[in-house]
Amino acid sequence: MAGNPPKLLYRQLLVAIDRNLTRVAGNKQWRNYVAAVFRSNSGLTDPVRIQQELQLALDYQELITNIAQHQVCACTEHAGQLSTLFM
Length: 87
Known about the structure:
Elements: H1 6-25, H2 29-40, H3 47-85
């Protein structure tokens, strides 16, 4: 976690949301929610709580990215199966 300062993690999470949720859904609900949560936690001073919140943000970023990658792979596999059916 030491390699991910809060600003970098925040930026990576917003990029993952923009690429995989905002663009797909056409609204900024998730982006606005994450921004609000980060702003509300900006005054935290307890190091343990800060690490917990940053780990949660990292987990969400990885989850969003992995789900999007899985969907792309699944669609590619189904497309290959469909092409063999119609040949």
